[in-house]
């Protein structure tokens, strides 16, 4: 039987705190034997547990940090504080150097990053916090578009429920797809969800502040049905094409045309969510020309199809 | 701001206990104001919280049962005990007769049923426990195939994660699809999942014990590729068609031909999960003849398509 330690300190998010116990605790061998024991370990016996939006209740932690001994995997859920106890960071570094797997759920990635365990690695975290955490830890290669990242002995899950996908992935790694699929059924979740976290990021989640090119971007967004060229964008911004590209890179980390495709995809998402327009019509209104091109960019950028996206996200009564 | 009370007593399942706080706690108005406050209420201050497979930790409950006052909605998560405190049942009956909404997650439906609140109503619960709970409470019309049932002021969710769908549904009812979709994005879940719970019930989840017709069923299962008739089944069982129908009804609550279609669908699920065979081939091998018929029965019985089912449940390396 494998031992999983869940590391908790004050402000731990309760839903994610309980997630490993629910998921690993449901894993059974063909003979019906439990495959994991899950221990909640904390640096003090009385821990504040949070819900979204603030404190929820207090927990009496069943294990101290000595409960980490013998655990082959340590999982860190999200915590709603910047004040990470140094004993937590020490414990994580020690477990990692002893050969244990370490994994995070949601903004638990910030704790792994603070311990230095994500330096020069790819990592996932909640899309709402990815930019902030990436600025704080520039050596970490955050990817907000995926549900989780498996980098061998260091794994990171995206926001909240993506922790379920991460736990199922670990069970699949340890015991194969059939055991993981059985767990998925017991918890009434798909064993492997299609698409990544990208499809959950709002189409209007644009940093948007303080941009020299704001006017040109607004102008372009009003013309997404049209095939806009670099020359047209540069002319509107009253700069050379070379300067336009440099400014776009500085402000969006993208070329103007990459940014434009992103805007077209965002407009398509908006139309898929809020209208009954057919795919060809949406493709035309967003400047993709034909539905095939829309589908191609959708798959590249969101790892899903326009049809699946519409089914998942449309409002009940589209206009 | 609406108040949601989560009712907990010893053995409450931690993942579901924390679910409402996470989901309702994430709901925001257009101005960014919190739309719900969530209170955990318990009959005693120190509560045992379970994970799948047994006790996890103890919780200091922030509210007693007086915390129910002012709550317009009461949610009961799963508990791993048959020993429901009478004060819990009284509190639920009182809240219901006072006009509050009551809702359950997973086997929390058993608590609502014990309080008499599900009598003569449709209800959802975890597929693994639906038969047992239905036998205990014969007046409840359990449907294991759906993710949740909204019966006005009484709502019930199916197993574990279906509680997420139920909470999102309540937010949609209270504040509309856009608010619920934003919450879904924050928790990285689809706002409305396709299919019901039916797709998560294993194809070999057959009670199977103590059946007079066991031999004939085994014989039929070995011939699912063929179009079996009532006469052939009766001949194998050495009974009249009328007796065959009666015995199938007694033992499966279905007619022989309904049972047979169920077996064909189960075989199709097995082949979709474990092989790369195309739809026409699978339809043929399961006795549906053509893929259109397979799709029709899939949609009727599982509320999803064979293609979506295969994507969700196939093993990583099908034979």
TrEMBL record, chains A, B:
PROSITE patterns: HTH_ARAC_FAMILY_1 (PS00041), HTH_ARAC_FAMILY_2 (PS01124). CDD domains: GATase1_AraC_1. GO terms for molecular function: DNA-binding transcription factor activity; sequence-specific DNA binding. It comes from the Bacteria. InterPro entries: Class_I_gatase-like (IPR029062), DJ-1/PfpI (IPR002818), Homeodomain-like_sf (IPR009057), HTH_AraC (IPR018060), HTH_AraC-typ_CS (IPR018062), INH-QAR (IPR052158). Residues 214-312 form the HTH araC/xylS-type domain. Keywords: DNA-binding, Transcription, Transcription regulation. This is Transcriptional regulator, AraC family. It comes from Stackebrandtia nassauensis (strain DSM 44728 / CIP 108903 / NRRL B-16338 / NBRC 102104 / LLR-40K-21). The lineage of its organism: Bacteria, Bacillati, Actinomycetota, Actinomycetes, Glycomycetales.
């Amino acid at each position: 039987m494998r031992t999983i330690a869940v590391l908790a300190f004050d402000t731990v998010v309760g839903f994610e705190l309980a997630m490993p116990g629910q998921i690993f605790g449901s894993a059974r061998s063909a003979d019906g034997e439990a495959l994991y024991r899950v221990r909640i370990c904390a640096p003090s016996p009385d821990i504040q547990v949070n819900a979204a939006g603030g404190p929820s209740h207090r927990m009496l932690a069943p294990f101290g940090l000595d409960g980490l001994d013998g655990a082959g995997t340590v999982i860190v859920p999200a915590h709603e504080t910047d004040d990470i106890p140094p004993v937590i960071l020490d414990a994580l570094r020690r477990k990692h150097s002893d050969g244990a797997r370490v994994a995070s759920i949601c903004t638990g990635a910030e704790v792994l990053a603070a311990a230095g365990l994500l330096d020069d690695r790819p990592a996932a975290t909640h899309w709402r916090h990815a930019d902030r955490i990436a600025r704080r830890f520039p050596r970490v290669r955050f990817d907000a578009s995926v549900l989780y990242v498996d980098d061998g002995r260091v794994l990171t899950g995206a926001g909240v429920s993506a922790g379920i996908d991460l736990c199922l992935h670990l069970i699949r790694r340890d015991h194969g797809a059939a055991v993981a699929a059985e767990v998925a059924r017991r918890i009434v979740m798909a064993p492997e969800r299609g698409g990544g976290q990208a499809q959950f990021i709002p189409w209007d989640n644009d940093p948007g502040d303080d941009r020299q090119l704001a006017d040109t971007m607004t102008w372009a967004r009003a013309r997404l049905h049209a095939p806009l060229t670099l020359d047209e964008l540069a002319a509107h911004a009253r700069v050379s094409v070379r300067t336009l590209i440099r400014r776009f890179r500085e402000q969006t980390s993208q070329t103007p045309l990459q940014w434009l495709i992103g805007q077209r995809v965002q407009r398509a998402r908006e139309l898929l969510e809020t209208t009954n327009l057919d795919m060809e019509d949406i493709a035309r209104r967003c400047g993709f020309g034909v539905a095939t091109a829309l589908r191609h960019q959708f798959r590249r950028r969101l790892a899903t199809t326009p049809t699946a996206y519409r089914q998942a996200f449309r409002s009940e009564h589209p206009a």
